Structure formats: structure tokens, C-alpha cells
TrEMBL record:
The keyword Cell wall biogenesis/degradation does not apply. InterPro entries: Flavin_Rdtase-like_dom, Split_barrel_FMN-bd. Keywords: Flavoprotein, FMN. Belongs to the flavoredoxin family. Residues 19-175 form the Flavin reductase like domain. PANTHER family: FLAVIN REDUCTASE LIKE DOMAIN-CONTAINING PROTEIN, FLAVOPROTEIN OXYGENASE. This is Flavin reductase family protein. It comes from the Bacteria. SUPFAM superfamilies: FMN-binding split barrel. The keyword Flavoprotein applies. Its cofactor is FMN. Coiled coil: none annotated. Gene3D superfamilies: Electron Transport, Fmn-binding Protein, Chain A.
């Protein structure tokens, strides 16, 4: 079968995209607006870029109703700061609560029953219940259209990481203790630590 994405409605092309690129890690992104209201939302178009400097990126899509910017993107454009909180199994339910469309003046930390922790370098709060936090300053935003289904690539430099002591040993993070969760297609998620195998890279 051959399919030209540009010949499809964007929602149909989106289904092919999320059904092909998986599992996807989840960036639980906390931001703050110009008036100090906290915002928290998950994004599964998320990955690392490089280690020197340490850079990460995520891609918030435009709202499917009218093509408007999501609060996370608007806040980062206004402040130039955000925190990526890593999602483990323990916070899957409250993470899902924040995926709903709330008004800009609603604090998703409170709506989901999560605890705010002040960051050291940036203004947005961290999620206490997450085991890994990345305090980021904005490096660049690349925008791809303004219509429904379009999106932006947000690139951030990680200025400081917070890692729960129980996860950290010998300079590494224990996957078995982090219990990361990945996004599949539709409403399906996967437990990334429960079924793994080792494959040594050939030299």
C-alpha cells in the first residue's frame, strides 16, 4: 500500500504517524504564564537531540478545532523557560488528567492533584511526583504552519537535572526503578521497563 499524506485529511495522516512512530516517550511539560499561572501538559512528540550541549525537543501541535496555540507553547514563547518532567507509571493517571483542554487561567497541577516544587534556575515549577526533571531554557522554536494539525518544534537547553536518589547509581538512571511509560496509538500506553532485551552493538 502506498499513501501520500498530503492527499489525506490531517487527522487521517496523524493516525498513520502515531501508529508508526512508537512507543513514544512522554514529555510532561510545566510552564508558567506572564501572570504566574502554572500550566502542565503531556506531549508524546518528544526526544533528546544531543549531549554537548544537552538539548531536548518536543513538538506541540496546534489545536484541531481552530489552529490556535496551546497554552504550553504560548507560555514558552512569552517566558523562554520550561521543565520536562519524565512520566513513570506512578503518575500516569494524573498525567492523563492534564491532557484535557483547560482554560488558560486553570492550574493543571491543582486540577490533577500534583505537587508543585520550585525550580532552581527557571521559573516554572517541577512535578514533585516525577522522578526526573529537566529545567530548560528555550533555544529555538521552529513553526510549521498555523492551521489545525500544524505544529511547532520547541528546542530547549537543559540547564539542570533533578533525579531521585533511589534511581541514580554510577552515573546512570535505573530504568527498572523509573518505570517509564510510552505512548502508543489511540488511547494505548506501554510499560517500557517490563519487557526488555539486550542487544550488544557490534564494533
Amino acid at each position: 500500500m502506498q499513501i501520500a499524506p498530503h492527499e489525506l485529511h490531517w487527522k487521517d495522516a496523524y493516525k498513520l504517524l502515531i501508529g508508526s512512530i512508537l512507543p513514544r516517550p512522554i514529555a510532561f511539560v510545566s510552564t508558567i504564564d506572564g501572570e504566574g499561572t502554572a500550566n502542565l501538559a503531556p506531549f508524546s512528540f518528544f526526544t533528546g537531540i544531543c549531549a554537548e550541549p544537552l538539548m531536548v525537543c518536543f513538538a506541540p501541535m496546534r489545536r484541531g478545532t481552530d489552529g490556535s496555540k496551546k497554552d504550553t507553547l504560548a507560555n514558552i514563547e512569552a517566558t523562554g523557560e520550561f521543565v520536562v518532567n519524565i512520566v513513570g507509571e506512578r503518575i500516569v493517571e494524573p498525567m492523563n488528567e492534564t491532557a484535557a483542554e483547560y482554560r488558560p487561567d486553570v492550574d493543571e497541577f491543582e486540577a490533577a492533584g500534583l505537587t508543585k516544587v520550585p525550580s532552581e534556575i527557571v521559573r516554572p515549577y517541577r512535578v514533585k511526583e516525577s522522578d526526573v526533571h529537566m529545567e530548560c531554557v528555550l533555544h529555538d522554536i521552529i513553526t510549521f504552519g498555523e492551521q489545525p494539525g500544524a505544529g511547532s518544534l520547541v528546542i530547549g537547553k537543559v540547564e539542570l537535572m533533578h533525579i531521585s536518589n533511589e534511581l541514580y547509581a554510577d552515573g546512570k538512571i535505573s530504568t527498572e526503578k523509573l518505570l517509564p511509560v510510552g505512548r502508543m496509538a489511540g488511547h494505548v500506553y506501554t510499560r517500557a521497563a517490563s519487557d526488555t532485551f539486550v542487544l550488544e552493538r557490534k564494533k
